[in-house]
Write a structure and sequence with these properties.
Elements (H helix, E strand, L loop, with lengths): L2 E8 L7 E7 L9 H17 L5 E7 L2 E9 L4 E8 L4 H18 L15 H8 L3 H7 L4 H5 L2 E4 L12 H7 L5 H15 L5
Parallel strand pairs: 3-6
Antiparallel strand pairs: 1-2, 1-5, 3-4, 4-5
Helix pairs in contact: 1-7, 2-4
Length: 199
């Protein structure tokens, strides 16, 4: 089981989201792939947060990865995202996201949200390392009241999160956040994964 990235995101309704703090562990990828993979983790984090309504949680699978999103909303308008492999338990992922947002709210004043570059929240790196073992996340929160009160939507592919008529390939092509190398990497990976599908 592996956690690839973790992020706290400012997610105001009807406005683009902003990553306030993030950490990633891309050590399982080759040195040459890490830049492109990192860009895609950031791209999918923002895309999924923008399409998760406030007060909801959802899990979105893309290729061999799953992004778990908790858009808490409220006065802070914060969301958190964890990108893992498909074996990482859903319950542990959402326990971790709840703890991460609570800790962020306790340590970072809302006035700092307007200048994300100045936010210091090194705890995000600690969470990323500590919760590579999902049992650590479950030990944090034995009681899952919030999880039970909120519906978790599992989308089988990124396409099911997108708006009607919107395609992930089109989003990738139009994205200014991705370099040409990352776009080419995505298309190559997509082709390689599609050749192995059994009908």
């Amino acid at each position: 089981m592996k956690v690839f990235s973790l992020a706290v995101v400012l997610a105001p309704p009807s406005k683009p989201c902003t990553v306030l703090s993030s950490a990633s562990d891309l050590s399982t990828f080759s040195f040459y792939q890490r830049g492109s993979v990192g860009e895609f983790m950031a791209f999918f984090t923002k895309t999924i947060v923008d399409r998760t309504p406030q007060g909801q949680r959802q899990s979105v699978q893309e290729n061999n990865y799953t992004a778990h999103v908790y858009n808490r909303g409220g006065a802070e308008q914060l969301a958190a995202v964890i990108v893992t492999d498909q074996e990482y338990p859903v319950r542990s992922a959402f326990s971790l996201l709840t703890k991460l947002i609570d800790d962020f709210i306790a340590k970072v004043p809302m006035s700092a949200y307007s200048t994300p570059a100045s936010i210091s929240f090194p705890e995000v790196n600690n969470y990323l390392q500590k919760y590579q073992d999902p049992r650590q996340a479950d030990a944090i929160m034995k009681v899952q009241q919030e999880l039970d009160e909120t519906k978790i939507i599992l989308h089988k592919t990124i396409e099911s999160v997108l708006q009607r008529g919107e395609k992930i390939n089109d989003l990738v092509d139009r994205s200014n956040a991705l370099s040409m190398q990352s776009k080419a990497f995505y298309k190559t990976a997509k082709k390689q994964n599609s050749c192995c599908v059994v009908m």
